[in-house]
Amino acid sequence: MTSTVPNAVQHTDATEPITMFGPDFPYAYDDYLAHPAGIGQIPATGHGTEVAVIGGGLSGIIAAYELMKMGLRPVVYEADEIGGRLRTVGFDGCDPGLTAEMGAMRFPPSSTALQHYIDLVGLETRPFPNPLSEATPSTVVDLKGESHYARTIDDLPQVYRDVMDAWNRCLEEGADFSDMNRAMRERDVPRIREIWAKLVQKLDNQTFYGFLCDSDAFKSFRHREIFGQVGFGTGGWDTDFPNSILEILRVVYTEADDHHRGIVGGSQQLPLRLWDREPQKIVHWPLGTSLSSLHDGAPRPAVTRLNRTAGNRITVTDADGDIRTYPAAIFTGQSWLLLSKIDCDDALFPIDHWTAMERTHYMESSKLFVPVDRPFWLDEDAATGRDTMSMTLTDRMTRGTYLLDDGPDRPAVICLSYTWCDDSLKWLPLSPNERMDVMLKSLGEIYPDVDIRKHIIGNPVTVSWENEPWFMGAFKANLPGHYRYQRRLFTHFMQDRLPAGRRGLFLAGDDISWTAGWAEGAVQTALNAVWGVMTQFGGATDATNPGPGDVFDDIAPVELPED
């Protein structure tokens, strides 16, 4: 049974889990983290030295946690709250166990490095109710005023299966999908690099939509339109049509859009638990030390200025006016903050890195949730025998509606709308209640006999990430021709390649990664930055467990010519 509408090619051999480690940089971060030798150490002369970590999202907290374990003293700066886009909120006046995920809410099993930390802090996951997934009782696809109810893809009209087949053919013919999937599953690094090098050179200038149009499988505009509105995995992908096809191939190759799971109780628990965690294997610091204890319970406030000072050190000014200077720093926020919210010294980065940050393309994204008295959508309609309401994909304003419950007799949550890009910008001028009214009107046209409003027990909560001052967008998505810019940012942790006067400040965060928009990218780049700081302090990894920088020359991302 396929779990998506439409899905990528189904895999026959699922004995070896794939990992979201490539294809640009096929390094096994999960093996690195699991190795008994640990991820590295620094000389005792560096123990207790302060290192600035700017940003308390997942990437910053993981970087700080691992630096602390090595014996360094991370100093975390956070403008808002720990978690970043792992943001879990409650509803005023409702059961505190009733929550909404304003940012990341679904995680693929291929996020194997992320899973290491989920397991480390003892969090539980469960299947997420994506369109037609096994965790979803039913799905309604509503396009052009016509609705189709389905429990499996076989319940949908033939045209949807035709679109799924077209997508599978498109991937096979234009992107060697099965060959790459097999190589990634087997961790066949030479084959991964061979396939991907050709595709990067061939497709760097191609949009997602152009890739579809170039395929005979998608010669039908109707098929392309349905594909854009319904998509694969998590729903419609037409908002991604202007982006580089390389971004989309990374998603399908790594199964990032397959078999999603949610974190029980909310994803923000992960960085919060790491903040409080007292590691048993720790150098220099006494047992019982945590990031929280090193910070007296709270991180430093927002950074307002960054500059280089004598000795190639990084000087940080925060919102309280406090000025501190560090031998090394890791910046984990959205890179646009360095262009606007933070007063930066040009000497922080080489000019081509500044250019790459300026060219970074961020996707807008909006969500709105309401709490309801119970999962009423599971009531059976007496006339049809169907669920009263279903997970809904539509071309109406709501686009994607998700139904989230914790049992038949408990309060539940509806994500009335989850949208991206232009669809997200349509919501931006509206208040939460205005948004809710428009959404309920749209859903009322799909479910005319269902009174959703009578079940709502609290005020809506909403977010538009493009309007969040410390984010200015949801996640990076490269446009055609941006591969070179992304390579500069991702490889920035290899600072022996940089001029001597441009070292010591490391970039991390999912927008620096090859898998932006996925928490796995935040984890991987945090580990890259930790390796860079460790190396700067004269440290090293164990010979039996080489780090990402140790093997860089063997698996470095493809380098395209610039002339």
How is this structure best described in words?
By secondary structure, the chain is α/β, with parallel strands linked by helices. The chain is about 30% helix and about 15% strand. Strands 7-6-16-17-18-15-19 form a 7-stranded mixed beta sheet, with helices on both faces. Strands 2-1-12-21 form a 4-stranded parallel beta sheet, covered by helices on one side. A 4-stranded mixed beta sheet has the order 11-10-9-13, with no helix packed on it. Strand 16 (about 390-395) and strand 17 (about 400-405) form a beta hairpin. Helix 2 packs parallel to helix 10 (about 270-275) and helix 2 runs parallel beside helix 16 (about 520-535). The longest helix is centred in the N-terminal third of the chain and has 18 residues, at about 160-175. The radius of gyration is 24 Å and the shape is globular. The N and C termini lie far apart (about 50 Å).
Helix content: 25-40%
Identify the strand order in the major beta sheet: 7-6-16-17-18-15-19
Shape: globular
Strand content: 15-25%
C-alpha-based Rg, rounded? 24 Å
Attribute tags:
alpha/beta, 17 helices, 563 residues
Could you provide a short overview of the structure?
By secondary structure, the protein is of the alpha/beta class.
Provide the fold topology.
Layout: H1 29-34, E1 50-54, H2 58-69, E2 73-77, E3 88-90, E4 99-101, H3 112-120, E5 125-127, E6 139-143, E7 146-150, H4 158-175, H5 177-185, H6 189-203, H7 208-213, H8 221-230, H9 245-253, E8 261-263, H10 269-276, H11 291-294, E9 303-309, E10 313-318, E11 323-326, E12 329-331, E13 343-344, H12 351-359, E14 362-363, E15 365-372, E16 391-394, E17 400-404, E18 412-420, H13 421-425, H14 432-446, E19 461-464, E20 475-476, H15 483-490, E21 505-507, H16 519-536, H17 552-555
Parallel strand pairs: 1-2, 1-12, 6-16, 9-13, 12-21
Antiparallel strand pairs: 3-4, 5-8, 6-7, 9-10, 10-11, 14-20, 15-18, 15-19, 16-17, 17-18
Helix pairs in contact: 2-10, 2-16, 4-8, 5-6, 12-15
